[in-house]
Input
Amino acid sequence: MTLVKPHDLVPDFDAVDDEGRTVRLSDFLALGPVVLFFYPKAMTPGCTAEACHFRDLVDEFAAFDATPVGISADAVDRQVGFREKYGLNFPILSDLDQRVADAFGVKRWGPLLNRRMTFVIDTDFRLLDVIKSETRFETHADEALSALQAHKG
Output
């Protein structure tokens, strides 16, 4: 497990989304930059605050043609409940086997299987920024927007 760093190329991956479809990172990147945020567990207070902040800023991300994409080790049905309960307006991915978390260096053991980290990925798979904070939930979306703004110049 190696943590990817800014300027690295990130690996393409596939995962199941909250509608039960297999999707690829490259599918999202074909539309614009991706803000991939790993969260420990759907429906918990911190993860809810983080996801709802991304939800509330979705128009700001759209101004950069960027798509927020949430991902955790939760099962698809839990992700569906999370999306529906909080009106999440972006894709949520299920990484049950933690294959994606391992590729990005965020996998951990215990009841909260992923570290809370956000990766801002440009359309060429180049990592623009990494946001790390386990407790400052809203900083992930805010700093991702700042990274997109800085990249746009």
In short: The longest strand covers residues 67-72. Strands lie at 14-17, 22-24, 34-38, 67-72, 92-94, 117-121, 127-132.
